[in-house]
Amino acid sequence: INEKKKEYKEIKAELKKNKNDEKLQKKYTRVKEQLVKLKTQHTDKDENKQIALGTSKLNYLDPRISVAWCKKYDIPIEKIYSKTQRDKFRWAIDMTKEDFIF
């Protein structure tokens, strides 16, 4: 993040000197977006350190609900469940249709 901040400041200073340089403006925009993305990722990482993100999905949510949601919105089940979890919930994957109602 610090390196991107430094790069951002350098490009900003160059841009002040050459305001009409299109290439420099594109580079400035790209670096600015990268910096925002890095800051967001860093914040998310810090906030999620104390939270077990998969716990409620495994322990409290009926897998048929998740599977039905995936099928309804054409989302691969691999995005929701790991291979081990897919093996564990094979029964839910096989029996659930996209219009499942709990």
Automatic annotation (TrEMBL):
Active site, renumbered: Y60
GO molecular function annotations of the record: DNA binding; DNA topoisomerase type I (single strand cut, ATP-independent) activity
BP-aspect Gene Ontology terms: chromosome segregation; DNA replication; DNA topological change
Coiled-coil blocks: 1-41
Entries under InterPro entries matching the protein: DNA_brk_join_enz, TopoI_C_dom, TopoI_cat_a/b-sub_euk, TopoIB_AS, Topoisomerase_IB
Superkingdom as given in the UniProt entry: Eukaryota
Designated name of the protein: Topoisomerase I C-terminal domain-containing protein
Source organism (scientific name): Meloidogyne javanica (Root-knot nematode worm)
